[in-house]
Please model this.
Amino acid sequence: MSATAKLFTHGRSQAVRLPKEFRFEGTEVRVSRIGSRVILEPVGATDAMPWAELDTLGDRPFMAEGREQPAMPADRAIFE
Model:
């Protein structure tokens, strides 16, 4: 589900006016930035994304030892 939300400034802060179907319960949300995305999650949510756990992995290569992959097949003509 996606929708467009309005941005506005309040003092020196920027705020987002969330559409009704995206409202949160409570008074706080957790804010995370992943690349160019900003993620809002309820504070204390049990099903929140484990960003902190993923960050503990550091910048290690996923498959440092490589992988055993068969050779690519030879190019073939699609339309003859």
In short: Residues 27-59 form one domain. The longest helix spans residues 51-55.
